[in-house]
Specification:
With 603 residues, the protein is an all-alpha fold. It folds into two domains: 359 residues, no CATH class; 151 residues, Serine Threonine Protein Phosphatase 5, Tetratricopeptide repeat (Alpha Horseshoe). The chain has 27 helices and no strands. The longest helix is centred in the first third of the chain and has 27 residues. The protein is elongated, with a radius of gyration of 27 Å.
Length: 603
């Protein structure tokens, strides 16, 4: 149970005037982001941007907007990645209306969202440690708390660990979540500070709902708000007493209503068994959780030493065998570290509740993706974006408090220290932006850092093949096939590369191997169909294209190939059926096929 807090300030006592107006903080943060990210505006679409944006017909017309809210399969052409994120899809559709696939506007929108996040983080910091503070912070002067919050937010704004969301359009979901939840957090903290009732939580609940419609990882906000209300109770009651009170639960009710409504809708529209598509074979909730105990430290390490960031880290050590001591020993060390942190958080809950809140928020926001629900990726670059934001505030407040005890001018010293850090961090960010310049630089960076990463080697090969560097591409695909012999995609690409190099027999063997490894994947058939078509086997190509179209969740490319092959074969009625099916997805994409069909019928 909590020890007594210092009494609240007298009702008539004026609030200290902040040394950093909100408008000035916003301007400084905007300048920092502009300087750190000015060389990223024309970076390319990569990774899931291709299946979720470039190849996704649903982002090209606003007429699909209502479907976003009832059909998760509109999010991406990759069915395995289907998820209920209608606001993310809406943002993509609006972006497409602005500039099509010209990437400048996609990056500008991401940077504006990053700026909103940083401003929201500053407002939260001011409410926890600064002049707007919810509760007493005896170890830090309020004016210094304002400055500490700004300096921490500036470092967060230019830190290389944020390049994963700023450069990656698909990661906009993490930006949207943070852009909605940090203002919601600020409003919830004001509600606690001013002793307001549940009506003050209507706007935070609306922002919470918007965050949930952007990405389900936002679900943890209700737990963060509950902890804030319990730990920062304005009447300074012990947290156990606070959560037993009726006013605590009534205050939370609007958030609970938003969460329940979202979960009900999501359960109704998500395809059955979709969660099983996200996990690696053999992963269980226990093995995934044990792996994540190391991932939690990994993210903190990346924030402290951002020198080896990996945008697609597929070789992070997994726990796959509970009998393997070599796998469990690092996990045991990670858990031991967290067992040291846990009592410190309990002490902070009594003596420095704002500190405890930020540490708890780190785990709460990571929990949906980094706890017991197995996902294919053990770690990724944008997953810790919001969880780490609060730790930046904590570090900034702690550093300012230490400076206040060691030097006579703590604000000057802390500001100088922050700038000394901000400059190299900003330079590292600018250098990191160049990795995202195009698909070749992106995958070359990952392949160099992950020589045993099958996905990195394969995609590096694809980028090389696109530039007609076929021998280098073949070597990369062979490395991928050795790393993942049961994976069909390296076999498809080996078929393409060896075919372009003139070895038709070996190419056909690779295509057949891919179809045998993954008979349900449309790519196994569509690429073999193109190979057969190019070598005059039109009937075989049509069979493969038809099989591919029947297996694709959004068969746009497959139907284009099928209709073209049917027209080449003079099978006009079948071609018209394929064209009609394709026009229901994207009429413009089938305009050439329709014109060919009409011309053939007139002859």
């Amino acid at each position: 149970m909590n020890s007594p807090h210092p009494p609240p300030p007298p009702p008539g006592e004026p609030t200290p005037r902040g040394v950093v107006p909100a408008w000035l903080a916003a301007a400084i943060l905007a300048a920092g982001i502009a300087l750190a990210y000015s060389n990223s505006i024309h970076n390319a679409f990569v990774l899931d941007d291709l299946s979720g944006i470039v190849h996704n017909p649903y982002v090209r017309s606003l007429r699909f907007v209502p479907r976003y809210f009832v059909d998760p399969l509109t999010l991406t052409v990759n069915r395995n990645n289907a998820e209920y994120r209608p606001l993310l899809s809406l943002s993509f559709a609006l972006n497409y209306q602005l500039s099509g696939y010209a990437t400048w506007s996609w990056h500008v929108v991401n940077l504006v969202l990053h700026w909103i996040v940083c401003v929201g983080l500053f407002l939260v910091g001011r409410l926890l440690f600064g002049t707007g503070r919810v509760g007493p912070v005896a170890w830090l002067d309020p004016r210094l708390g304002d400055a500490a919050s700004l300096l921490a937010c500036l470092l967060f704004a230019v830190h290389p660990i944020t390049t994963g969301v700023a450069n990656y359009a698909w990661a906009r979901s993490s930006l949207l979540v943070a852009a909605f939840l940090l203002p919601a957090t600020a409003l919830a903290l004001r509600s606690i500070r001013d002793r307001r009732g549940p009506s003050s939580m209507v706007v935070p609940s609306a922002l919470y709902a918007l965050a949930l419609l952007s990405k389900p990882e936002a679900i943890g906000f209700i737990a963060v708000a509950a902890c804030a209300r319990a730990l920062l109770d304005p009447d300074r009651r012990p947290w156990l007493v606070t959560i037993r009170g009726r006013d605590f639960w009534v205050w939370l009710a609007p958030l609970a209503f938003a969460a329940a409504g979202y979960l009900a809708v999501r359960a109704a529209v998500m395809p059955p068994g979709q969660a099983a598509r996200w996990a690696n074979p053999g992963d269980t909730p226990l093995t995934y959780f044990l792996t994540q105990t190391r991932a939690w430290w990994y993210y903190i390490g990346q924030a402290l030493a951002p020198f080896r960031l990996i945008a697609d880290h597929t070789t992070f050590p997994r726990v796959t065998d509970l009998r393997d001591a070599s796998q469990l020993l690092p996990v045991a060390l990670a858990i031991a570290g967290w067992l040291v942190v846990a009592p410190l958080v309990l002490v902070a809950a009594r003596r420095a509740p704002a500190v405890a809140l930020l540490v708890i928020a780190y785990f709460v926001y990571l929990a949906p993706s980094s706890s017991v629900i197995p996902l294919a990726e053990m770690v990724n670059e944008h997953r810790p974006y919001l969880p780490l934001a609060g730790l930046f505030l904590l570090a900034g407040a702690g550093a300012m408090a230490l400076a206040a005890r060691l030097v006579r001018a703590p604000l000057a010293w802390a500001s100088a220290g922050a700038l000394v850090l901000a400059v190299p961090l900003g330079l590292l960010t600018r250098d990191r932006n160049t990795v995202w310049r195009d698909d070749l630089s992106f995958w070359a960076d990952i392949a160099a850092k992950e020589p045993a990463g099958a996905r990195a080697q394969m995609n590096h090969g694809i980028a090389l093949m696109a530039r007609a560097r076929f021998p280098e591409a073949r070597d990369a695909f062979e490395r991928a096939a050795r790393a993942a012999p049961a994976w069909h995609l390296p076999q498809i690409n080996l078929g393409i590369a060896t075919g372009r190099m003139g070895d038709a027999a070996r190419a056909r063997a690779h295509f057949d191997r891919a179809a045998a490894l993954a008979p349900g994947d449309p790519q196994s058939y569509s690429y073999r169909g193109e190979f057969r078509r190019d070598r005059g086997d039109l009937a075989g190509a049509i069979d493969d294209f038809r099989a591919a179209a029947d297996r694709a969740s959004v068969p746009l490319r497959e139907l284009v190939l099928l209709s073209s092959a049917l027209l080449d074969a003079g099978r006009l009625d079948e071609a018209e059926a394929a064209i009609r099916r394709g026009e229901s997805l994207d009429r413009a994409a089938f305009r050439p096929a329709r014109e060919r069909l009409d011309a053939a019928r007139r002859r």
